[in-house]
Amino acid sequence: MSNFLLITSGSVMPATEEEQAAIMKAWGDWFGVLGEHLVDGPNPIKPMVKTILNDGTVKDGLDDTMVTGYLIIKADTFDRALELAMGRPTLDGGDISVYEIMSGM
């Protein structure tokens, strides 16, 4: 069984308390589905980011969509990890990326 990093990006929390409660319930329901597959998270990420370039200089921000959170799940295959990730609720315009974590580093 491998661990997979799920990165959420571009998500925006709904404006109203009712919509926020609904999305939080949907996420809670999804975590229940993940069950024993959930290893770490969910963890939101603060919106400040600095990037260290390969020449050692530091720049503000990213060149891509802002990462908004992550979680780590375990699954037998990449396809199973994708299947589990597809069940997640969406926030306004949010995406999710799935990476297999290499062990032994």
Q: Largest sheet at a glance?
A: 4 strands, antiparallel
Q: What's the name of the CATH homologous superfamily?
A: Dimeric alpha+beta barrel
Our measurement of the CA-to-CA distance between the termini, rounded to an integer number of angstroms, reads 17 Å
Count of structural domains = 1
The percent range for strand residues is 25-35%
Q: How many strand elements?
A: 6
CATH architecture: 2-Layer Sandwich
Mean pLDDT across all amino acids: 83
Number of helices: 2
What is the molecular shape? Answer: flat
Element order: H for helix, E for strand: EHEEEEHE
What Rg is obtained from the alpha carbons, in whole angstroms? 15 Å
Low-confidence stretches: none
Structural class: alpha+beta
Oligomer classification = single chain
How are the strands of the largest sheet arranged? 2-5-1-6
So what's the CATH class?
Alpha Beta
| Annotated CATH topology | Alpha-Beta Plaits
**Helix content bin:** 25-40%
Question: If you had to describe this structure to a student in words, what would you say it looks like?
Answer:
A hairpin with a 5-residue loop joins strand 3 and strand 4. The model has no long low-confidence stretch (mean pLDDT 83). The chain is flat, with a radius of gyration of 15 Å. With 105 residues, it is of the alpha+beta class. It starts with a strand and ends in a 5-residue tail after the last strand. It has one domain: 2-Layer Sandwich (Alpha-Beta Plaits), CATH 3.30.70.1060.
